[in-house]
Specification:
This protein is mostly beta strands and about 240 residues long. It has a single domain, classed as monomeric porin ompg (Porin, Beta Barrel), CATH 2.40.160.40. Helices cover about 10% and strands about 60% of the residues. The chain has helices at about 1-25, 180-185, and strands spanning about 25-30, 35, 40, 50-60, 60-75, 80-95, 95-105, 115-125, 130-140, 145-160, 165-175, 190-205, 205-215, 230-235. The strands form two sheets. The protein has a twelve-stranded antiparallel β-barrel with strand order 1-4-5-6-7-8-9-10-11-12-13-14.
């Protein structure tokens, strides 16, 4: 299964560039030292490969997908991968960019782990800097033991005269609990805060970066949720 996912992403690395040029698609391929989302490692702290693809449908509307290798994630029932798929809508209104999206998260290699969520984001550009606020909500589902709300604020600034961008974010996860075991999948210590800062380099189609990720999770639940430096490298179209 691991070899199959690595081979699939390898094929995608060769096939996506041609498709993107022909159809106006946006795509990325990258490798990272960890798959960390909202302060939690989805890959048990192991390196991952990731591919993304965005297909324009009409003005402002696209269908987006991402596939990430997880190599038997204990957080997601032994899943070998995470596949995120759904529509996104964006609209520029003055200096604001508004975005809404729906996502369903699939976990090949695991049973009854899939769940969906919706999100909205508002971003504002101030010269070379951007500020964003967002909220994502997963309605009550058995796979996550209740519902889940994630609210966040982020800022980024391109360093003038350099290919570097500095960014940071803070977020909070909360929600109801019907099944404590299943709820611990996304909130292993109940409601919690996460935070991070990053330095990214962009040159043409290539990018690389390093970021620090941390959370307020403490005690035994801190496994794969503690402070971590994460490196990544890839290319985009």
């Amino acid at each position: 299964m691991r070899l199959a996912w690595a081979a699939a992403l390898g094929v995608a690395a060769h096939a996506i560039p041609a498709a993107a040029q022909d159809r106006g698609l946006a795509a990325t391929i990258e490798a990272a030292s960890d798959e960390r989302r909202r302060g939690l490692s989805w890959s048990d702290g192991d390196p991952v490969l990731r591919g993304t693809l965005s297909v324009p449908v009409t003005s402002g509307l696209s269908l987006d997908g991402a596939a990430t290798t997880l190599w038997g994630s204990t957080r997601h029932g032994g899943a070998d991968a995470a596949i995120d798929i759904g529509p996104s809508w964006s609209q520029q209104i003055g200096g604001w960019r508004l975005t809404a999206q729906g996502r369903y998260h699939l976990f090949p290699g695991a049973s009854d782990q899939g769940y969906g969520e919706v999100g909205a984001q508002a971003g504002f550009l101030i010269g070379p800097a951007s500020v964003d606020i967002a909220a994502h909500y997963a309605p009550r589902q058995s796979a996550i033991g209740g519902d889940n709300l994630y609210v966040s604020a982020a800022a980024a600034v391109a360093v003038p005269g350099t290919p570097f961008t500095v960014s940071g974010h803070v977020g909070r996860s909360s929600g109801s609990v019907r099944d404590p075991v299943a709820a611990a999948r996304l909130r292993p210590d109940g409601s919690y805060w996460d935070h991070g800062v990053a330095l990214d380099w962009y040159r043409g189609q290539w990018f690389a970066g390093i970021r620090y990720a941390g959370s307020s999770i403490d005690g035994p639940a801190r496994t794969h949720a503690g402070d971590r430096l994460i490196a990544r490298v890839g290319f985009s179209l």
